[in-house]
Design goal:
heterotrimer; A alpha/beta; B alpha/beta; C alpha/beta; A: alpha/beta; Rossmann fold; 7-stranded parallel beta sheet; 7 helices; C: Rossmann fold
Chain lengths: 257, 256, 256
């Protein structure tokens, strides 16, 4: 498979879970990678996997809410690769759970910052280096389309990301850069499993745990999937021709949104 | 319904110094409510407070940066010290600070727009929630921009989409406390904040500019006086307990 | 409290033999309007017509199946012969919610429900469109089911989703005649349309048993009286010129 041969892709939050699967799928398709996250050991492991596919891998520790750190990583990337063809804004997650009435304002704010500002800052920093025909893929969520109970920070953050994608699509189509949302639906990751910091429940264990039924906030017909399935969808989106879909949403969810 | 249907009620209006916020504060006061209002500076809210007192109602006006949690918390304590509890919270403080495409946007300005429009609304809700009486109302002034993307104003679009979502999430969480949460979509309003008028020195100058002229966004749209928002918010604030919650009330004139 | 706010206006209400349609006809007549009503069942519609006439209202009343174009056209012709123009059109008549999954559905019944709920309002709108006055108001009755999928209610949802889109299309086509078209969602109402009261057919009994009580489907919802819904329709139908168009007004108590 060499559909991405000669291309450079950046995946934020690429150290584990969905981001990791996307990075490896892109490497398998021939792309060189830049991957950032907050944990060196995870980045090292992903780099190994990417290099095992014969691809280059630049890694960096980046707090996606820190503009200076984002710009430093951008500089490293451009120095190494000169451009980026595909930007995957995947870094995110729900830090603040529970009802608004008892929420911690700092954690509520931080949830929005990581998901929304992170996506914005990376887009802003990389935009001038994305050529005609490039792709931006923002990992959105069904939670960004429909309100739920006890997860307002995440709902709100993803609603913002989802809207941002559409705005950016409206702005970049004259440059031939297509911008779309990817909705994974429930995925067997540490984040989804609400692992404690430092804990990393293996993917297969999470899949087995939810094999009969998804967690209660989802209807019974939802399925907790392997993150590699999301990697496949991201690859599909990354390999659309110039002038393909833009401002659209591609979803693996199994419930109307 | 009498014309003093809010007698005995306490309403908080953020961004209450001018434009939509001022109109809302005056309409609620005109219906009998006492008002606590805030904005970033004092001059304008002091003048509105004087107008409220001239209607025979109590008014408390304090400067607050809604993006600053500590300031919002202090404001909430000052309001509840003065009034004991509140009945109506109108999150109106907002506006666009970073206009233009993402590609050349100023990250600080982009962030600030989200902070004021989204975090400001969240902070006020969080700070006042324990002190809102049963039957109370939370009314968030959002925007059609929160429902429909356009080029050239992504921070405002994203912030208002977030505020719209927050309205619905909160409605799902507190309906059983008898507190209803809705948002208002103003459509085009003549204020001194708008970025689509050349002369925005006053409400009147914006109205005059578009008198008989094609409005922005859609030919069916109409540039309206902020008092129409005062009227709509009064209507929503006067609904009985068990009225609509998680809904949007809109004066827009284009489908979303 | 009647204030004669509709003096001299002509109002058309479909499905006026019972439920919210009947409540609207009564309320609007009390406000001074001339009324044109239709329904499928004479034993329901005739008493309503008599009641309004006894109150001094001018009434056109006709038995109409809104899925039959000829009947709709004849109704519009009768209204045009009696009244110069129509100022308010309320598309209320609808088929009730289905209860079968698609796999078990009766195809003809499914199609009939969809036809009644979207083609019916289209036929009525089409027949009356040239009789609508400048500045007329159209209110189309939607449902949360038209915005969010509910299992075993597909015919109802599909019809109401179609009606929601029809509303928006009408809004963007008619705005320059000053005609405003909005969707109205009453939420659960204690009438024979109440989804969890389909085993009863007496409206007074339904109101007695379920009025004001929460919904077994959605705990935040409560069944309101048809009179309460009619008050909101009056408000929506009497917005000043340049008011909302292409918008949704909902009394639901959960996000649409």
């Amino acid at each position: 498979m060499s559909e991405l041969s000669g291309q450079v892709a950046l995946v934020t939050g690429g150290g584990r879970g969905i981001g990791r699967s996307i990075a490896i799928a892109f490497a398998r398709a021939g792309a060189d990678l830049a991957v950032c996250s907050r944990t060196q050991s995870e980045l090292d492991e992903v780099a190994e996997k990417v290099q095992a596919e014969g691809a280059n891998c630049l890694t960096g520790i980046v707090d996606v809410t820190d503009r200076a750190a984002v710009e430093r990583f951008r500089d490293d990337l451009i120095q190494r690769y000169e451009r980026v063809d595909i930007l995957v804004n995947n870094a995110g997650g729900g830090l603040e759970r529970g009802v608004v009435a008892e929420s911690d304002p700092d954690r509520w704010r931080r949830t929005v910052e990581v998901n929304l500002f992170g996506t914005y800052l990376f887009s802003r920093a990389l935009l001038e280096h994305i050529p005609d025909g490039g792709k931006i893929i923002n990992v959105s969520s069904g939670m960004g389309l429909k309100a739920a109970n006890q997860s307002s920070a995440y709902n709100v953050a993803k609603a913002g990301v989802h809207m941002f994608t559409e705005c950016l699509a409206n702005e970049l189509w004259p440059r031939g850069i297509d911008v779309n949302n990817l909705i994974p639906g429930p995925v067997a990751t540490s984040t989804f499993n609400r692992d404690a910091p430092g804990q990393r429940t293996p993917t297969e264990e999470i899949i087995t745990k939810f094999a009969d039924e998804p967690p209660p906030q989802f209807p019974k017909f939802e399925r907790v999937k392997h993150p590699d399935e999301v990697g496949e969808l991201a690859l599909y989106m990354a390999t659309r021709p110039r002038g393909g879909p833009t401002g659209q949403t591609f979803s693996l969810a199994r419930r109307p949104l | 319904m009498t014309d003093q249907q809010l007698a005995g009620k306490i309403a908080v209006v953020t961004g209450g110094g001018r434009g939509i916020g001022r109109s809302i504060a005056l309409y609620l006061a005109g219906a009998g409510a006492d008002i606590a209002l805030c904005s970033r500076t004092s001059n304008e809210i002091d003048a509105v407070a004087a107008e409220i007192r001239a209607l025979g109602r109590r008014a408390l006006a304090l400067p607050v940066d809604v993006a600053d949690w500590a300031q919002v918390e202090s404001f909430a304590r000052a309001v509840t010290d003065e009034f004991d509890h509140i009945d109506i919270l109108v999150n109106n403080a907002g506006g666009g600070f970073e206009v233009g495409p993402v590609a050349v946007s100023d990250p600080a300005g982009w962030r600030k727009t989200v902070e004021i429009n989204l975090f400001g609304t969240y902070h006020m809700i969080r700070a006042f929630l324990d002190d809102i009486a049963r039957g109370g109302k939370i009314i968030n002034i959002t925007s059609g921009m929160g429902l429909e993307a356009r080029p050239g104003n992504s921070s405002y679009n994203a912030a208002k989409a977030g505020a719209h979502m927050l309205t619905q999430c909160l409605a799902l969480e507190i309906w059983d406390r008898g507190i209803d949460v809705n948002d208002i979509i103003p459509g085009l309003v003549a204020t001194t904040n708008v970025d689509w008028a050349s002369d925005r020195s006053s409400v009147e100058s914006v109205l005059a500019e578009f008198e008989g002229k094609q409005p922005p966004f859609a030919p069916s749209e109409r540039v309206k006086h902020p008092d129409e928002l005062g009227d709509l918010v009064l209507w929503v604030a006067s609904m009985p307990e068990g009225g609509p919650t998680g809904q949007s009330f809109s004066l827009a004139r284009r489908p979303f | 409290m009647p204030q004669r706010s509709l003096d001299g206006q002509v109002v058309v209400v479909t499905g006026a033999g019972r439920g919210v349609g009947r409540s609207i006809a009564r309320l609007f007549a009390a406000e001074g309007a001339d009324i044109a009503i239709c329904a499928r069942t004479a034993s329901q519609l005739d008493p309503v017509a008599e009641e309004l006439r006894a109150g001094g209202t001018r009434v056109v009343s006709r038995i109409v199946d809104i899925t039959e174009w000829d009947q709709v056209e004849a109704f519009a012709a009768e209204v045009a012969a009696e009244f110069d123009s129509v100022d308010i059109l309320i598309n209320n008549a609808a088929a009730g919610a289905d209860t079968d999954p698609i796999a078990d559905s009766d195809p003809l019944a499914w199609a009939k429900t969809v036809t009644t709920n979207v083609i019916g309002p289209y036929f009525v709108s089409r027949a009356f469109i040239s009789h609508l006055s400048e500045g007329a108001r159209v209110v189309n009755f939607g449902s949360g089911n038209g915005h969010k999928a509910v299992a075993e209610r597909s015919a109802y949802g599909v019809g109401k989703a179609g009606l929601s889109m029809l509303t928006k299309c009408m809004a963007i086509e008619l705005w320059d005649r000053g005609i405003e078209v909005n969707e109205f969602i009453p939420g659960p109402t204690a009438t024979v349309m109440l989804p969890w009261a389909t085993h009863l057919d007496d409206e007074e009994e339904i109101a007695r048993q379920f009025g004001g009580l929460p919904s077994p489907e959605n705990p935040s919802e409560r069944a309101k009286t048809p009179a309460e819904a009619a008050e909101h329709v009056l408000w929506l139908a009497t917005r000043p010129a340049g008011g909302p168009t292409g918008q949704l007004y909902s009394l639901m108590r959960r996000p649409v």
